[in-house]
Amino acid sequence: EPEVTQTPSHQVTQMGQEVILRCVPISNHLYFYWYRQILGQKVEFLVSFYNNEISEKSEIFDDQFSVERPDGSNFTLKIRSTKLEDSAMYFCATQGPFTDTQYFGPGTRLTVL
Amino acid sequence: AQSVTQLDSHVSVSEGTPVLLRCNYSSSYSPSLFWYVQHPNKGLQLLLKYTSAATLVKGINGFEAEFKKSETSFHLTKPSAHMSDAAEYFCVVTSGTYKYIFGTGTRLKV
Which of A89, B8, B11, B101 could disulfide-pair with A107, CB 3.0 to 4.6 Å? Predict the structure, then answer.
């Protein structure tokens, strides 16, 4: 069964550094999402992406965040200058045509020191 | 605006006894509702979904959920818990824009 994959599984970085989180979607999926889950809190929507542009973003998704699909396969989330409060598990999700079911990757645990 | 309330943050049951995880939703539109499970250090796995067909939805691993519009509820049940069911369960609502709105989760201990 096709799966969404994410790399790295765990990233440790210093405050102020840039990080890029990567996701490989299921091959025929057209809609892409990033969510995050701060430890002990609920999963929160960050951004949705369709047809090479952002469809919707949350208040969390400020100018420090960006998304792109640079090579038509990977879907990336970049945080330009990480803050301590960016420490969280980041989930990528992808969705095929004619459905509203999203399939989640295993997540990237980001730790900002 | 949409929202989801999971009424119990923790539920503890004995193996072989029934499971009930409660979820209430609020939505301005006809919602799609989902239950996802997250095992420790794993991603989110779809258990089942409701999309305005049958109100009783069967999912994987013996779980099912009943959509009750009058009560705005979508409770998750299983007749007999197994040790492997111990995990965190999330109720999710979506409509219109496709983004998921998650509940705060219920940690099931077996």
Answer: A89
Pick from B96, B78, B90: nearest CA to B5: B90
**Contacting residues of B for A56, CB less than 8 Å apart:** 97, 99
Interfacial A residues in 18-47 facing B (CB < 8 Å) = 31, 33, 35, 41-45
Residue ranges, chain A, pLDDT below 70: none
Q: State the pLDDT at residue A46.
A: 97
Closest by Cα among B105, B95, B89 to B33: B95
Taking an 8 Å cut-off on Cβ atoms, the answer to whether B99 and A56 are in contact is: yes
Report the gap between the CA of A113 and the closest CA in chain B (Å). 21
- B32, B86 in Cβ contact below 8 A? no
Q: What is the mean pLDDT of residues B77-85?
A: 97
| pLDDT, position A110 | 98
Tell me, yes or no, if B73 comes closer than 8 A to chain A by beta carbon: no
